[in-house]
Amino acid sequence: MTNQPITHAATALADLAALIDAALPQTQCTRCGYPDCAAYARAIAEEAAPINQCPPGGSEGVARLSAITGRPVMPLSVEHGVEAPRAVAFIDEAWCIGCTLCIKACPTDAIVGSNKMMHTVIEPYCTGCELCIPVCPVDCIQLDNVSGAATGWSAWSAPLAQQARERYQLHRARVPLEDSDNVETQSSQAALTQPTADTAATTRQAAIAAAMERARQRRSPPAQSPI
After folding, report:
1. Torsion of Cα atoms, 127 then 161 then 75 then 38, to 10°
2. Cα(178)–Cα(180) distance, rounded to whole angstroms?
3. 161 near 129, Cβ under 8 Å?
4. For residue 13, which phi and psi values (nearest 5 degrees)?
């Protein structure tokens, strides 16, 4: 009986996280500072993160999360990005070298190709997450606006979010199988280094921040030299 309140609390927290996750656009872009939408949803449910760190959801996304959590509506965090039109990645096939790095980075398996062969983006599956851009060694990937002036949830939809969620879940189910050959090597390295959870989280956050910064630099126009 003593464990019953704890069980109820854990169930309530999981249910809240699921509601929050369902209200997120599922672009899996990591701009919120978490590895995926579900992780951000759990952080919000645990009151470890504010509700304004999802640029793809925009101001309407903040309002949705406010309605679920009861927290006040706040402006979108500029540190995590700005609300923008929906974008889709395109690969300049003339410059693609077939390195497969973008394929590995894509959270929804929207890029197809093989090693040393041209890659192509399957447009309906692309969430515009930008994660493929910083890993491309020849800068042959660009983002094109496909929603005009519409931004946030006005440029997105519940069916697109559901599709992205399902494709991401399939991606996550497949990736560990691809990495299974490296399990022994990873275990040996872990035994030597024994990184703490905090260290791993810090490293992950740094990698995400670096990727986001490289993507921002690509989007920003070059500075004009004074005449």
Report:
1. -100
2. 6
3. no
4. -65, -40
**Contacts with 50 (C-beta within 8 Å, 6 or more apart), sequence order:** 44, 71, 74, 77
User: Tokens representing 199?
Assistant: 């260290």
Q: Which residues contact 41 (CB under 8 A, 6 or more apart)?
A: 17, 18, 20, 21, 24
Contact predicate 24/57, CB 8 Å: yes
pLDDT by position in tens, the chain (length 227) = 555 666 878 889 999 999 999 999 999 999 999 999 999 999 999 999 999 999 999 999 999 999 999 999 999 999 999 999 999 999 998 899 999 999 999 999 999 988 888 899 999 999 999 999 999 999 999 999 999 999 999 999 999 999 999 999 999 998 764 444 443 333 333 333 334 445 544 554 554 455 455 545 554 555 555 55
pTM of the model: 0.75
